[in-house]
Design goal:
By secondary structure, the chain is α+β, with helices and mostly antiparallel strands. It contains 4 helices and 3 strands, in the order ββααααβ.
Length: about 100
Amino acid sequence: MIQVIQFFVKNSCGRGSVTLLALNNAQFAKLCHLLDRADWLEDPRFADNAARMAHAALLNQQVTEKIATRTTAQWQDILSRHDVLHATVRSPWMGLCPTA
């Protein structure tokens, strides 16, 4: 069975939601560097997918804190440029809020 850590961030700077995926160690490393959290790569709690799954709540909280610093549109641009798997989570009220 493949275990995948998925980060669902409900709110990035008050404007939308985004989901991030780190399917393997290489993808997790990209995410760590992008979020300026290279220290996660040395943390035994995040050493591999199994360890990340065991500590998913903590890791999700820490990713959420970093993502909350920018808008969803800004993160989409940054994540795309760095080839990190992600998707905007659409909701019925998205068109009612500014995107920048």
